[in-house]
Amino acid sequence: MDNPTNSARVDVTAPNTVPAEIPTVRRPDLLSVEDAKAMKLGTMADLFMAHINPGQMHFMKLLGFHKVKVERAEGMYYYDQHNRKILDFFGGFGSLALGHNHPRILAARKQFQDENRHEIAIAFMSQYAAALAKNLATVSPGDLDMVFFGSSGSEAMEAAIKLAERAAGPDRPKVVYAINSFHGKTKGVLSITDGELYRGQFKLVDNTVRIPFGDIEAIERAFRADRGIGVIVLETVQGGGGIIEAPDDFWQKLRSLCDRYGVIMVCDEVQCGYGRTGKFYAFEHYGIVPDITALAKSLGGGKTAMAAMIAKRDIYMKAYGSPKNAMIHAQATFGGIGEACATAIEALNVLYDEDLIENSAQTGAYLLDRLEEMKARYPKLIKDVRGRGMMVGVEFHDFSQAMPMVVKPMIAMLDDKLKGSLPGFIGSALLRDHGVLVAFTEYNRNVIRIEPPLIATRAHVDEFIDAFDAVLAKGVVRIVKDFVASQVG
Ligand SMILES: Cc1ncc(COP(=O)(O)O)c(C=O)c1O
């Protein structure tokens, strides 16, 4: 019988099936950063269609974005492939408080890199996250002291509603939200984001109660009728809704109602916060402090993705205060990463060193005055001008109202379908003929959103108004004709 232990040992060498010169992992044909920088407009469009969002290209073409390749951006301006300056009165929906590539932000980031600082904040404690959290607690009123870091407004708002839900407790799981609200597109916050466009046919959380924004009676009725309501979430100023503020006495009344009914109050400041309305938080205009708030967008200094949820300490402790539940809430892999925190620390310092909040209030008031002049000059086109600081909306009349008398009744039948087209034509003319960029709003598509960097001066406002005036002076028929010509040309 063979004894395997006695059998002669045979050395078996694995056949070398792979010749040494052929690497096991073939290097794919990758584009480099230099390839990206040198890319032609046509290739950019093809790749966008092939890999990012073919449907979105339709809108890019309508607005003329497909003809612009941004080569660099500084301060208030983009510079395109022809070195044409584009005045940025869109500001990334409020993401560019400090403008593009602020030199102090670039320097802070470069220094951080040159010193080989660390990024990951989920192993060792991060001195950068600690300093940024301390800064945010310092600029936040009351005992808004506890900070959670994420990288998008949606993530910060997810954290806000999760914290609120746990603090409210299992007997009060219902969340009140407003008509025309926008809190993000991830699935949790989508449940409190209004509007069929975004909600699509997703299966959403159904423990929600929808109320008209700014309607204190409706909220009181809801609180009284349903003790299951534990949380209310509102944007302090509705951005996507078309730059809408609640009546001045609304917030004080809401604070009292929330205190009386023990409902946790969440103010979403992702768009209206960070000095945009002329105070650090928009809720400071109304002399109230919510239980939880959230910031994102400009928090990253216009250079990085950074978001924060900021909560009152007692609410936080109720939900996550013990070692047993602390990790439910701990940050995601990139929450509070080093260079993003360093950038946000520097950005907050710049915001105050350069008095940008004050500038937002003052230059914003000037912008509103100049827009009121436009409204007086073009009453058939402009229906309303509103906002605070540098969060401003210009609402146009329905298309038919702007048309000559003879065609008015015919066009009126199409007003609903045509909503958004007049601002679209005007926005595309501003970009095409004057190198000025503005934004649109999600729900009321007759509104142009104006959210320039908070570094904007009166001269920038004048530049914008001159362009706006020149477009409106053409009259609606010429505006439409020029738009049609631009699409076929
Ligand atoms: C008020 C408000 N909340 C939340 C969000 C979501 O932020 P993000 O797009 O960074 O996820 C936005 C985005 O525009 C917003 O305006």
TrEMBL record:
Protein name according to UniProt: Aspartate aminotransferase family protein
SUPFAM superfamilies xrefs: PLP-dependent transferases (SSF53383)
TM spans (from-to): none
Requisite cofactors: pyridoxal 5'-phosphate
Entry keyword annotation includes DNA repair: no
Keywords: Amino-acid biosynthesis, Aminotransferase, Arginine biosynthesis, Pyridoxal phosphate, Transferase
Entry's family note: Belongs to the class-III pyridoxal-phosphate-dependent aminotransferase family.
BP GO terms, sorted: L-arginine biosynthetic process
Natural source organism: Notoacmeibacter ruber
